[in-house]
Fold each of these.
Amino acid sequence: MIKLSEFAKLNGVSYMTAFRWFKAGLIKGKQMPTSTILIEQETPPVSLPSDVIIYARVSSSENKKNLETQAKRLIDYCIAKKYRILDVIKEVGSGVNDTRRLFLKLLAKEDYGKIVVEHKDRLTRFGFMALKTVLEKSGKTIEVVNNKENEKEDLVEDLVAIITSFCARIYGLRRSQRKTEKIVKELLGDVKEVNKKKR
């Protein structure tokens, strides 16, 4: 076992930061009757809050150019904030799909302190607060760069994904595409009518 002060030096952090980690249970050790804190030597280095993974996502393959520019904006943001970028994950897929391969791989990772996303629905369309709470339990945070609503086109694509999924369950795969196209056409027509009346 090593003293907490030595552990702090090895990890390049202040004693107080290491002390907070110990109190939060992020590092294993014990406090002696003399108040000295000893840390188990096999304790892995703790990821700093400034150790970040960037997650960029677009809904469809037609938006691949947008994916690159989104990732570039996030990289520039993290450099300006002096964050240490551990990885940049770029994924094409619907925000309502919670089985995205790279998204799940990100959640399984342990060696980072923060996920940085442009909009919260780039990470997930539903259950953002639940995901945030679970990550915070393991000492990780999510930083949303832009809290404004996302692009309308992205919302429409996610809506189509939801309708397609339900149509496939109700009507079967063969008829689902026709049904989806019909429902989406009617919904978009209703939205246009509402917008006209607002003007």
Note: The CA atoms of residues 77 and 145 lie 8 Å apart.
Amino acid sequence: MSAQIAISAIIPAYNEKESIAEVITEAQKFVDEVIVVDDGSTDGTGVIARGLGAWVVTNEHRKGYAGAIKTGFEKARGDILVTLDADGENHPGDIPRLLKPILEGKADLVLGRRGRIPRSSERFINWLTNFKLKLADSGTGFRALKRELALKLDLKGKCTCGIFVLEANHYGARIAEEPIALQPILKRRKRAWSHFWQIFYVLRWLVKPPTTGDGLN
């Protein structure tokens, strides 16, 4: 990586021992540090990650996905932070694609745009988000953003769907999207019942006025 720009990868993980090793070893090819936020795993996920040289931050009590992401933001030392899933669905080889618009000074946040949003509830949240921001995939978990922006985000919600981009927009962030490829995973996708409550967090951000003086420089 560049001597001037440091890159941190943040991987929130809960019981991902089957996939975490490959995600870490692939991500290490493109970043300066890998932080695994072990959100109360009981299957040895953290032990595996630590053995591969990742910086493991352990939450004794589960904070959920958004809480784990925020913990990673607080610990990361990089100038640009990348978030990706621990289940192997995101291919770390796409990290340079997400970094490019930021390194070129064209964006503050870059979203990894999936070809299809898998859950209907997530598609509905994306539809809501588009009343303020025209984005194809506002709920992706694969992102790159400037550390300055990351530290401003509260991420108070049941997950990050919708609120991540709306909050970033509130602070004046320039948001771009880059296409990514998804890899098949063995883990069965659960119903995201939390998306029902997430809608109310999204609606709050939709009606919130723009910031006045606390945005990005």
Note: The longest strand covers residues 7-13.
